[in-house]
Amino acid sequence: MIQVRATKFPEAQLFVPHVFEDDRGRLSETYSESNYAGLGLREHFVQDLVTWSGRNVLRGPHYDFRMAKFVQVLKGVVFDVIVDMREDSPQYKQWEGYYLSDHNHHQLYVPPGFAHGFLALADEVIFHYKMSAQHDLAYEHRIAWDDPSIGIKWPIVGEPRISAKDRAPT
Question: What is the pTM assigned to this prediction?
Fold first, then answer.
């Protein structure tokens, strides 16, 4: 049975799937359209992406007003952040962070118009994205990971490793 937990944003949800574990290992359903639709997740996902990151890699935050994301960690642990970037929202530029890991199996639904980013907190992180629109750089926006008007409190130890693209907000 999958648990659904509310976030501070009514549109975003945290899912905790049931994990079957025995002496052979673990099994968990990562997504089923019918099962998740029954819990309120009715997005039609069209593309999956996987990233591999090392400790202190900070990806994002990125957003695309056309795209919802459904994210989870397959290996390792991250501090995952969403930021409401919808200018007409009463929660505009507010953020919330979640620890996602291969041990807690949490999955996060990121609605369209929300920026998403994460900080890798393990030496090896494998991160999975389901997306409701094809990734297209023409529609992607970026905010600075350290934008003072947002004030994300990243649990960084040392210097973050950030791509040149993410150093140039749009």
Answer: 0.94
